[in-house]
Design goal:
The chain is an alpha+beta fold and 65 residues long. The protein is built from two helices and three strands.
Length: 65
């Protein structure tokens, strides 16, 4: 959960999330983006802007091919 400073913790294990460059793959294509990742269990928090923006754009482009 976040506080006003956007300090997120893992909902699974409670550890503080850390920014990490992460590779996302879809239909054989990949791109990297800095996202919050749990250093303990590896859970990734994908912000709404990324899911509705860049990821949706890549998905649409690949599915149109």
């Amino acid at each position: 959960m976040a506080d006003g400073n956007e300090n997120w913790t893992c909902g699974k294990c409670g550890a503080a999330l850390e920014k990490k460059k992460t590779v996302f793959s879809y239909l054989g294509r990949s791109f990297t983006h800095d996202v919050d990742v749990c250093p303990v269990c590896g859970a990734v928090r994908i912000p709404r802007e990324l899911a509705e923006g860049r990821m949706a754009e890549v998905e649409e482009q690949l599915e149109d091919k």
